[in-house]
Amino acid sequence: MKKSRTPEKRIGNTVCSVTVDSPCCPAGMHERCRLENGGCALEHLRIALVGGLDRLEDKYQEAFEKSGAEFRFHSGVSGGGSAVRLKTLANWADVVVFVTRVNSHNALSIAKGICRKSGKLFLVMHHAGAEQISSRVRERILRLK
């Protein structure tokens, strides 16, 4: 018995990794989206969100991953071993998003310092809504392209 595979959408040699409707690339529009925009802005990026609301972690993850990004969350608590985890996360990420409304000053200095030294994109946002954050990150990255 053959295993069934979901068909991959191809554009030239590129395979679209976005498999569901997303704000940057709606289902059925993958090829057109790729040709016009050069791909989804967040696709294949590693996004770290520092701060925000713990209870919304799943929503943050869903908002970023449906656009093809890898996502990790850190609460922003920076005491004890949490500071080491924050440094590791900031070093892993391509983009660090820092939510000021729910965060500590120490977490800000750790994340911002790593981004400054490594040349990574560091975005500061006040609000903690998942869709709002992901759309603002997408807009900012599109402006940089």
Condensed summary:
By secondary structure, the chain is of the alpha/beta class.
Explain the overall architecture:
This protein is an alpha/beta fold and 145 residues long. The protein has a domain at 46-144: Response regulator (Rossmann fold, 3-Layer(aba) Sandwich), CATH 3.40.50. The chain contains five helices and six strands; from the N terminus they run E-E-H-E-H-E-H-E-H-E-H. A four-stranded parallel β-sheet has the order 4-3-5-6, sandwiched between helices. A two-stranded antiparallel sheet has the order 1-2. Helix 2 packs parallel to helix 5. The radius of gyration is 17 Å and the shape is globular. The protein starts with 9 loop residues before the first strand and ends with a helix. Residues 1-16 have low confidence and may be disordered.
CATH architectural type of the domain at 46-144? 3-Layer(aba) Sandwich
Describe the global form.
Answer: globular
Cα Rg: 17 Å
Which sequence of strands runs across the widest sheet? 4-3-5-6
Query: Order of helices and strands, N to C?
Result: EEHEHEHEHEH
Low-confidence region ranges: 1-16
Assign the CATH class of the domain at 46-144: Alpha Beta
The CATH superfamily of the domain at 46-144 appears as Response regulator
* Major sheet attributes: 4 strands, parallel
- Beta-strand content bin: 15-25%
How would you state the average pLDDT, rounded? 78
> Helical proportion?
40-55%
| Structural class by helix and strand composition | alpha/beta
Distance between the termini: 46 Å
What is CATH's topology name of the domain at 46-144?
Answer: Rossmann fold
* DSSP helical segment count: 5
The count of β-strands is 6
